[in-house]
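Q&A log
Question type: sequence-to-structure
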Amino acid sequence: MQLSSQLKGSIACITFLIATSWFLALQCLAQSSRTADHENTIPTMDSARAHYRITDSVFAGLSFKIKSSLPQEPEAYIPSHRMKSRKFDLLIHFHGESRAVMYAAKEFNASMAAISINLGENPAVYVEAFEDTSLFNDLLKRTVNSIEKKLKHPIQIRRIFLSGFGEGYGALRQIISVKSNLPKLYAVLLLDGIHAKYVLDRGTPERDSIDSTELQPFVDLARQAANPDSGIKFLITHSEIFPGSVASTTECSDYIIRQIRVKRISTFRHGPLGMQQLSRARLNHFEVLGFAGNSLPDHLDHLEALYHFLRATVRL
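Response status: OK
Response body:
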């Protein structure tokens, strides 16, 4: 017996709806699983090893706010023993306690002014803040003008270090995506803070892949820094934390390494502040340093060690 065309159409429609429902259910299940992983696999405490911290709470020098178009005003700091300088390196850091940034500027082996920018606990707020491609240049101008006003003499910026910890990677991705910004930068540091969304494989719903479009600006920067004649340095550090809801810093670093065709070398050595380095990948002025640890203290180590990673970047 032949089915009517109307009945055939109804069966086809029902079949499509069932298939779609199953796909969406699997997608939700995968997302829920990743979220659960995120909630259950990141301990907030760790006593397996010492996590040394910067003990300074007050830093001699000038601390002041910079008026800008950002949702929160940047905090600037100039060490007391550098206030007569007329040539400065400039550290612009996104996310995390400002004391680590201030300590880095105070202990740096050249005159350094530092800016801390904290916009929230979500990388999206950093991305949105720099969607206006002119904002970075505006920030630089306002910073120089504010420093000159505080010091009461003109200054010259020699080298610009752009640094991001954790969620701060969103701002760095926006800034380096603007090609005209790159010649202004001396070095870029990503401190345990490079993530990307997962893309569900429609053919195999239980398998995820990284959204490479979110990492492309970092791949482009790594490729440039890997050139022996490059004028920019690029350092990535990462822990072993796997959030589950997004691609981890390890997965994202591995992706970049594969694109640049750099070999990651397993190694065990003591890192700064009690950190334990497990791996290294380097090509000319591009380097990735992998560290042990999957807890919140392990993550915070990367910010506390900003000063040490600044020195490592200069040596690249």
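Response note: The longest strand covers residues 156-165.
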